[in-house]
Amino acid sequence: MIKSMTGYGKAEVNLSSGTITIEIRTLNGKSADINLKTSIFPKDKEILVRQKIADSLVRGTIDVYASYVPNESSATKKINQGVVLSYFSQIEELNTKLGISQEHKPDILAAVLKFPDVTDSKKDDLITEENWPVVNAGIDKALALVNDYRAKEGVSLYNDVTSRVQNILDFEDGVEGFEKERIDTVKEKLLKALDDLKQQPDQSRFEQEMIFYLEKLDINEEKVRLRQHCKYFKETIDSEPYPGKKLGFIIQEMGREINTTGSKANHAGIQKLVVHMKDELEKIREQSMNIL
Fold first, then answer.
1. Could you give phi then psi for residue 67, rounded to 5 degrees?
2. Dihedrals phi, psi of 128, to nearest 5 degrees
3. Quick one: residue 77, left, alpha or beta (phi over 0 = left, psi -120 to 50 = alpha)?
4. Where are the beta strands (DSSP E) in the chain?
5. pLDDT tens-digit readout, 55-100
6. N or C: which end of the chain has fewer CB within 10 A?
7. Mean pLDDT rounded to a whole number for the chain
8. Which residues of 47-84 are buried (b: 16+ CB within 10 A; e: fewer)?
9. All domains of the chain, ordered by start, with CATH?
């Protein structure tokens, strides 16, 4: 069964220092356009992550988010005592040189605590070789959820486009119902035009020209090819795991036959059916752009 290129998956990874939440969102795209919208993953793992995503999701615009929430113990910042003592002693030395009273030591300490580098906010690397397997498993879980989402969307896509292809075939069957009437109408128009000219042509030559003219309006080849393209569409969507691109080419060929039928129709009833076929094909084209 086909898959949609629209998907979403979310997984949480519990580390000793906190929780990493991984989210993957996908939309349609011509290739695997992977955007890692996070700096959590180590640089030496980014290529592996990208390859894993490309292998699993194949194609689409893929945005990967990862956020980190530390535990309470990990979130507490530590005071760098050496830096505080250095700042404080320098300020006391300045106070002595400038003859400033030492009565405001608590105020000085409060000010020093706001200085740069006083609190150690630098975290150790979140992802290490030891906890990487856990993070990797979280990525796998998010990808699996994306693929589940895509598969469910794919069922709706399949039902929609295949039903519309069948509608086109039904409209094509309707065209055949107008064939005799169309030919008779064309003949009548030609005979009337000839009668209006008050001319009496050579009957044999007239019949040859009539046959030649009707052959130019013949749409049997277009009908046969359109049915073949519709059949190929159904075979492709049923047999290939990722048929999206190929279906796009088949849709182009279907459109070509429908347009040619319309240009040769010369009949109001057939023209209406051609409009219906074009409408169905356009909806198929829009939906197929999201088929993986």
1. -125, 155
2. -120, 175
3. beta
4. 7-14, 18-27, 32-36, 60-70, 78-79, 119-120
5. 999 999 999 999 998 887 655 566 777 877 888 788 878 777 777 6
6. N
7. 86
8. eebbebbeebbbbbbbbbbbebeeeeeeeeeeebeebb
9. 7-74+124-149 (3.30.230), 78-120 (no CATH), 154-288 (no CATH)
